């Protein structure tokens, strides 16, 4: 069986009318940038890529988080690849306070790209999985100089979403609204090869992912839901559950796309001003599209993530995503709590 490259897959999708030539070329530019990030990540201690960015005093990004060298390197690779790519009107990044228009000197396209250039930065220096997450939106009609507010479109309007997981192998997982498909980087050929066509998430699961150290800060329905998971077969769920936590959303979501599960980063009281840790535009929305396209579900615990009307580029939301029936169960705990409290 001849291997199918990402390019051939996207040309097939274009022939079926599922993707425009412009969007196909944009996704190939992003994939090439991810290959370059994979090379940088793969150098590890042998390259000047570990540790904090900005020398001894480090540098703090818009999120108020210490930037790693690879955060900055990955961001630069994506910006540079797309500047001359010719398919973008503007892009936005976790690492930049505001969106960035494509310079006038370069050809412009009709799409907006928003990304987390390196998700899971705290895993870099311990050689654990990290990844790139990206989302593609249409540039609003008639907008020639896109600004932050032009990105504020509900996740259901995304035309494509994907991630690249830099793990034991480098995998690109992508959706253009016709299923979720996985590609593995063949380092000898230098191309992504289709290895996971039509990924599907089992509707039920016995595996959950959450950072338990925040347990005392969660709201009551989240505590009740997780307590029932931990009670196992002696508790109301009547079955035992296993737990995993990669501390990089890309790693946890990839496990769920591969074998099912539920990933949870709920609201917590640690910082009441933040309605969760994960960002809507470049973490929750693209992952929600990938998961729904694979038969899963993605909720805040109260509403479908893809329905949320964004209010700011870096806004945060609670996330419950994965096996459809389990996400529905977790959401039921929260809705029943709200009804009782009303
Ligand atoms: P970093 O990029 O700062 O490591 O955060 C990664 C992340 O946004 C997401 O990828 C993980 O699921 C989550 O945060 C891990 O958060 P905790 O470090 O609080 O467990």
Automatic annotation (TrEMBL):
- Main localization of the protein described in the UniProt heading: cytoplasm
Q: Which GO terms describe its cellular component?
A: cytosol
Note on how the cofactor is bound: Binds 2 magnesium ions per subunit.
Q: Which UniProt keywords apply?
A: Carbohydrate metabolism, Cytoplasm, Hydrolase, Magnesium, Metal-binding
- Family stated for the protein in its record: Belongs to the FBPase class 1 family.
What is known about its subunit structure? Homotetramer.
Q: What is this protein called?
A: Fructose-1,6-bisphosphatase class 1
Q: Which organism is it from?
A: Luteimonas chenhongjianii
Recall the taxonomic lineage recorded for the source organism.
Bacteria, Pseudomonadati, Pseudomonadota, Gammaproteobacteria, Lysobacterales
